[in-house]
Amino acid sequence: MAMKLDATNFDQVLSGPQPVLVDFWATWCGPCRMVGPIIEQIAQEYEGRAVVGKVDVDECGELAMRYGVMSIPTVIVFKNGKPVAQQVGAVGKATYAAMIEQAL
After folding, report:
1. How many percent of the chain have pLDDT more than 90?
2. Is this model's pTM higher than 0.90 or not?
C-alpha cells in the first residue's frame, strides 16, 4: 500500500536508501482517482525495492510548491533525495514502472 506522505515524514522517507515514487494528488481530481489504483499496484510490485507514497496537495501545499507541482496528478521519482523523473497527467502503469526501474 502506498504510504501517506506529509510535512512530518516526507524528508525522512526521501533520505532513505531506496528510490521513492511520490504521487501528488487530490481527492477532487478525476484523473488522480484513475491513477490511484495503478499507484497501489506499483506499491505492491516494488515493495522492498522502492517506496511509493502519496501527497495530498490540499493538505500539503507546501510540498507541492517545493517541487513546482502546478497540475495534478504529478508523479515524481526521487533517488538520494533528489528528483530524477517526473510525469504530469494520468498515464499507464508501464510509464510509472519504467520511472522506478531507471532509479533502481
Report:
1. 99
2. yes
